Amino acid sequence: MILEDLSSLPKEAAAQAETIAAKMLAVTRQPFMLAGRECFIASSIGITIFGVQQLSTEEVLHQADTAMYQAKQAGGNTVRLFAPEVLTAIAAPAALA
Asked: What DSSP string describes 42-71?
């Protein structure tokens, strides 16, 4: 999902995106009926803020994907914001191989 009209200040835009993501998680946590059975969905949301930097579509998706996997590793049903240091931490062990 791409959110428009967020603040031009990265920290404020991140806070706005996290607020929206928290609302989305609250909705997806609600049980629902499917074919007579109560079902649940677990969601992990990764957020990246772009617009200031000149990033390719692939870079933006990679950042969001990295944040989403951080959310999954945190136990799921949560939100994580992409941070550049995450990529550094992932790349360091790979560089040793």
From this structure: --EEEE---SSS---HHHHHHHHHHHHHHH
